[in-house]
Design brief:
It contains 16 helices and seven strands. α2 packs across α3 (about 40-55), α4 crosses α13 (about 255-270) and α15 packs antiparallel against α16 (about 320-335). A seven-stranded parallel β-sheet has the order 3-2-4-1-5-6-7, sandwiched between helices. The chain has about 325 residues and is of the alpha/beta class. α12 (about 215-230) links the parallel β6 and β7 (about 240-245). Bound molecules: guanosine-5'-diphosphate and magnesium ion.
């Protein structure tokens, strides 16, 4: 497709940016992600041009979500797992989209410190929390960031995210495999776990099973296994495991990687990986169209003009919500 050469702030053309990303230039990847995260329209246009050019180069990256409550030990686990991944001769990108990191401010630094070893590795690319990250997990920008990172050819992409609120669906929509990290706890504490997050997890890792926690860990393991047993299987024929890990001692980390690899083999053999990715693209397309339509609808002058009056009519029971919605949509579409 012929494109007019759109310039970035630094004057580079989309073609050159995409080429550099595909060639493995990390600075360019980081800059392209910043472009993607920018809310300026000209940056968005440029970002989309780069993304289109990167589409032909999507590598077979394993996209893995690492989710769990703040403080569950995600960043520390990623540091340990990252070392294991590199040790096995693979390259790795880490995308941190933990909204709690942004809220607590200081913990972005904390994350960097926690991934200190990993961030000095030439095999690893670390991207901390984007400034545009909103509560509820990752927005559509994460999809774009993952696409750019895949074009850069990383074997493994780890996405750190807090499993809160609506974000479960989003995590599922952009990863191939989900690890749920849980602190050792049993009985009553299990009650607090959201069913939704347990349902989407492919592997559960109980973290910090060292020191004082070592004794309660196997009890927690049995409890989590029982809890999983009560849920329908995520994939027929795949038994979801509960592993005991400690980033501090380095235990259970190699085992976690092996379980991830087993899960990917399972998905590849059954054709699930491909169909899951196809479904993700389909849902992304649908979601983006819906978002854009919503935006246009709410910004439409005719809608804005009539909205208050129709809302008031609905609230005072003089108009049904059905007729009200129909009138508003008509006000929107008649202008087109
Ligand atoms: N004892 C112990 N502490 C850990 C372990 N992993 C993380 N921590 C501590 O738990 C706290 C939260 O860890 P962090 O990785 O930032 O959790 P995140 O918020 O889920 O990313 C930090 O103080 C870590 O030092 C572990 O394996 N053992
Ligand atoms: Mg963290």
């Amino acid at each position: 497709m012929a494109r007019s050469p759109e310039k970035t702030s630094s004057g580079m053309e989309a073609e050159n940016i995409a080429e550099a990303i595909i060639a493995g230039n990390r600075q360019m990847l980081a800059r392209a992600i910043t472009l993607v995260e920018s809310s300026k329209e000209e940056h968005q246009e440029k970002a989309h041009a780069v993304l289109d050019l990167c589409l032909a180069q999507q590598s077979e990256s394993m996209v893995i979500g690492i989710t769990g409550s703040p403080g569950a030990g995600k960043s520390s686990f990623i540091e340990a797992l990252g070392e294991e991944i590199i040790h096995r001769g693979l390259t790795l990108a880490v995308l941190c989209i933990d909204p709690s990191s942004r809220r607590s401010g200081g913990s972005i630094l904390g994350d960097k410190a926690r991934m200190e070893k990993l961030s000095t590795r030439p095999e690893a690319f670390i991207r901390p929390t984007p400034s545009s990250c909103h509560l509820g997990g990752s927005g559509p920008r994460t999809h774009e960031t993952i696409m750019l990172t895949r074009a850069a050819g990383y074997d493994v992409i780890l996405v750190e995210t807090v499993g809160v609120g609506q974000s479960e669906v989003q995590i599922e929509n952009m990863t191939d495999c989900i690890l749920l990290l849980m602190l050792p706890g049993s009985g009553d504490e299990l009650q607090g776990i959201k069913r939704g997050i347990m349902e989407i997890a492919d592997i559960i890792c109980i973290t910090k099973t060292d020191g004082e926690q070592e004794r309660s860990a196997s009890l927690a393991q049995a409890d989590f296994e029982a809890a999983l047993g009560m849920l329908p299987p995520k994939y027929e024929g795949f038994h979801r495991k509960v592993l005991l890990t400690s980033a501090l001692k380095g235990t259970g980390i190699a085992e976690s990687w092996e379980e991830i690899a087993t899960h990917f083999s399972f998905m590849r053999e059954r054709g699930i990986l491909e169909s899951h990715r196809q479904e993700q693209l389909f849902r992304l397309l649908e979601g983006l169209v819906e978002n854009e339509l919503k935006k246009q609808f709410h910004a439409d002058p005719a809608v804005v003009r009539r909205k208050k009056e129709i809302e008031a009519a609905v609230l005072s029971h003089s108009l049904s919500p059905f007729s009200g919605a129909s009138l508003l949509v008509k006000a929107f579409t008649r202008r087109r």
